[in-house]
Amino acid sequence: MILLLFLTIGILHTVKGTEPAVEISYEEVTPPYMATLYSIRCSVTHMPVNSNLWLSMISSAGGYVENFTGESNRRFWFTVRNDSDSSVTVVFDHFIPQYEGQYTCVVREKTDDNPLEWSSKSVYLKYTTMPEIQDLIYDHAYIFNYDHRRLFLNDGSALQLQCAASGVPEPKVEWKKKGNDNYVIEGPLLDVPSVTKADSGFYFCEADNGIGDPVRSTELEVKVLDFFPPKMRYTSEPVITITEDLNRYWRMAMGTKMEVLVNGLPPPTVTWWKETEIGRERIMRESTSTHRFSIYEGFVIYPETETDHELFIDAPTQFQLGTYVAKAENSLGVTELNFTINAMPEIQDLIYDHAYTFNYDHRRLFLNDGSALQLQCAASGVPEPKVEWKKKGNDNYVIEGPLLDVPSVTKADSGFYFCEADNGIGDPVRSTELEVKVLDFFPPKMRYTSEPVITITEDLNRYWRMAMGTKMEVLVNGLPPPTVTWWKETEIGRERIMGESTSTHRFSIYEGFVIYPETETDHKLFIDAPTQFQLGTYVAKAENSLGVTELNFTINAAETTYTIQR
């Protein structure tokens, strides 16, 4: 019975003339993919019952075996399609280098006990890719304005273009020129040692390895030109004259513009400079409290065209007057254009010894007969102004230069003086007037305006409790105006009295305002509620550079018993 069962199974699987015929076929699928993809079909004639059919591979990369089934497609790089019980198709969506190798279709019985297996012939499938051009490599000195499709070269210079291409198998690379079918340079390097204008044109490279169609790069325009040093011309006036008052010009935020058009090959670099006393100083874009600049650089549309460059000064002040330089330079040379900003003169200050003044009145100067007078007129402007000193009411009095120097003044030099600055721009500028007063200086004079001897007849205790006060007063004059101080005679000498108060000294000092240097001024020492401590002799002292004078005051009191109450 057992023998009959085995014979029956054998008959079911292998009947004479019905041995399974396993076949393998494939086709390549290239476009639109970069790598070659395959569709592989396994088919069986006389498919045994209770059997499986699959595609098997032995990889050329390490010799490992992979069976392509639905369960093995963990990365979704292929699709297994069961067309029928005796036909299966594997379509690769991603054919990686490790998939290159021997492929075989296999049929095997579904039994664990010595299953029978049949195979197709093997086919070898290669990993291939279409060519790819990764980059066109060249010296970036050929380009300008970040346009990488245009290369500009000087006549006679060298041109080298490299075509970086890849593919499996390695592609053949050729350089070609648009519009010239006879121009073919084999290899990835296009090398022209010395270009001429005839080499101008559009170039591209092609890569071909038999997989798909040849691949073509983008076109590069090569333009061979005659390079030349920078050229520059004015498009705004080279001399700028500000006829407004600069302070008003600044407050109104008016601006000044210097503008040039520049060209050259290679395209030149343009910088701006200012001439200063210590040399040229480059102007940058930033602004400071005294320099407010804006620099505009025009966009170069084409290297032979002129481009606009501007320097703008926002609300210029005296600091920005002078000469400016626009400088254009390339590898072949340098050219410059100058601009000058002129402005009507400005008088910043009148400078003199403040010992001439008093009472903070800086428009009146008082001098001793025979002393020296020096007045300096600080004026500026571009061009530099001519400065003259004049005297009001005397048209013949003209002193050229910023310095008025009188070694020894007399009363005839008294009067009103002013300086004028003129540089031919606008009207001459005139300073404020200074009154010069030549006087006979004299030592201090002082006289009493209160009694020199003060006698307190009240009981001092009551005088102190009632907070009664005592005043000493003098009138003082002199030239120069004297300084007045107050002193008290003590057992150990004179002690200066200051304006402060203490527990035993309560003083107030008053200094009169000097209206005019020859007039008398009032000076007072006031003792608030004097006690026994404040009795005695006081001195008013007036002094200037020509002398000293003093007046004494005495404070007496009737005899009394004085007790300090605390």
Provide a compact summary of the structure.
This protein has 566 residues and is mainly beta. Helix content is 4%, strand content 54%.
Radius of gyration: 55 Å
What's the CATH class of the largest domain, please?
Answer: Mainly Beta
CATH fold-level assignment of the largest domain: Immunoglobulin-like
In whole angstroms, how far apart are the ends? 148 Å
Main structural class: mainly beta
Largest sheet: 7 strands, mixed
Q: Are there runs of 5+ residues with pLDDT below 50, and where?
A: 1-16, 561-566
Helix content: under 10%
Shape: elongated
Number of domains: 5
CATH superfamily of the largest domain: Immunoglobulins
Number of helices: 3
Assess the beta-strand content as a share of residues. over 45%
CATH architecture of the largest domain: Sandwich
Give average pLDDT, whole number. Answer: 83
The number of strands is: 44
Helix and strand topology:
Elements: H1 2-13, E1 21-29, E2 37-45, E3 51-59, E4 65-68, E5 78-84, E6 87-92, E7 101-109, E8 117-119, E9 123-125, E10 129-137, E11 150-154, E12 159-168, E13 172-177, E14 180-186, E15 189-192, E16 201-208, E17 215-216, E18 220-225, E19 228-234, E20 239-242, H2 246-251, E21 255-265, E22 269-276, E23 279-282, E24 293-297, E25 307-314, E26 322-330, E27 333-351, E28 364-368, E29 373-382, E30 386-391, E31 394-400, E32 403-406, E33 415-422, E34 429-430, E35 434-439, E36 442-448, E37 453-456, H3 460-465, E38 469-479, E39 483-490, E40 493-497, E41 507-511, E42 521-528, E43 536-544, E44 547-557
Parallel strand pairs: 11-18, 20-27, 28-35, 37-44
Antiparallel strand pairs: 1-2, 2-6, 3-4, 3-7, 5-6, 7-8, 7-9, 10-12, 12-15, 13-14, 13-16, 16-17, 16-18, 19-21, 21-25, 22-23, 22-26, 24-25, 26-27, 27-29, 29-32, 30-31, 30-33, 33-34, 33-35, 36-38, 38-42, 39-40, 39-43, 41-42, 43-44
